[in-house]
Design brief:
The chain has 151 residues and is α+β, with helices and mostly antiparallel strands. Helix content is 17%, strand content 40%. The protein contains two helices and eight strands; from the N terminus they run ββαββββαββ.
């Protein structure tokens, strides 16, 4: 898979979080439910401080790399953390070096990406990795940028 190494500035994001693991048999169902919950009007629709229209799937707080528990936060970038829904978690995507992958397609393309990534020899930091779903995309024909934190 092709990628470029980029330097990102810090981002503040807010959204809904679950703790899961790749080995959890309920992982896919839990992640799907989290995405659906995030897009309910009382969640996503109530965030007035959104920066742009992109949605982010943030993987953070890794326990043991790809094999342990981690947090998944379905979120959006925010300019302010005031007046957010009380159930929202605020996280910071740290400034740093990331491998940037560009995908086009649907959720199956994203799932396939992760399978391929786990086979790659990247010098991963396992700090914050995220999928950024670009504004204006439909569910079958999305533009997605995936950022993997590097040492």
């Amino acid at each position: 898979m092709d990628y470029e190494v980029v330097h990102l500035a810090q981002k503040t994001v807010a959204g809904l979080t679950i703790r899961t693991a790749n080995s959890d048999p309920n992982m896919s169902a839990d992640i799907n439910a989290l995405w659906q919950a995030f897009f309910k009007e009382e969640n996503y629709g109530s965030v007035s401080s959104k920066v742009g229209g992109n949605t982010i799937g943030l993987y953070s707080d890794y326990e043991n790399g790809a094999t342990g528990l981690y947090d998944l936060t379905v979120c959006c970038e925010v300019a302010s953390t005031e007046n957010l829904p009380t159930r929202f978690t605020v996280k910071r995507i740290p400034e740093g070096r990331y491998a940037k992958f560009v995908l086009h397609g649907n959720t199956q393309a994203v799932a396939g990406f992760w399978v391929e990534l786990w086979q790659m020899k990247l010098d991963r930091k396992f700090d914050c990795d995220f999928e950024e779903y670009l504004d204006g995309c439909d569910m079958e024909n999305m533009d997605i940028h995936v950022y993997i934190s590097l040492n």
